[in-house]
Amino acid sequence: MLNSISPEDLFVAFGLDSARIGERPFVQRRLSDLRGCFADTAAYDAALAAEDPVLYEVTAVEPANGDGQLHYGLGILYPGKIGDEYFLTKGHYHSHRPAAEVYVGLKGEGAMLLEDEHSSESRMVPLRANSVVYVPGHTAHRTLNTGDTPLVYLGIYPSNAGHDYGAIADKNFRMTIVEQNGQPALRERVEGRG
Ligand code: S6P
Ligand code: ZN
Q: Thinking of the domain 2-188, which architecture would CATH place it in?
């Protein structure tokens, strides 16, 4: 097994500010890729008419596949809001629903929105430097930047987790995280409104 992992995957150094791993390719999501994710559709359309900024970037590292193996993603989510809702990731379930994930906050101030697949119970959990968020299986998860600097984090997950974006694209999350009196707060998501 050890021999099958490339030395580049055994040891990885990353930039804490850039959230890049050398020259490795990364996925970039712009505001236009997040259509349908934000509650305030008028604010979304207005923002997109003005510009189409990069909201986040993720470098995925997938050293090995198979039972017991791990993958991870290094993410950077830029600060900003659409209406009073913070910049966010698309969010997903894992295709293999029992797969859990651990998020390690590295820089900045953020939050994770967690929703249980069966009860739809929602939680807002802080994500910041020197902290770990446990995302149980069967839980939709989305990351939001609640600060005014880039949020940098690692997400570590089983190699067979997979990403199911379809369920979120259909129903989105029940709740959202907005700025209320200068603080992040959970609020029921109402389409068309913030
Ligand atoms: C993967 C893990 C993260 C996300 C990243 C971007 O299981 O949860 O690496 O991929 O935060 O979010 P999303 O919802 O666009 O994949
Ligand atoms: Zn995940």
A: Sandwich (2.60)
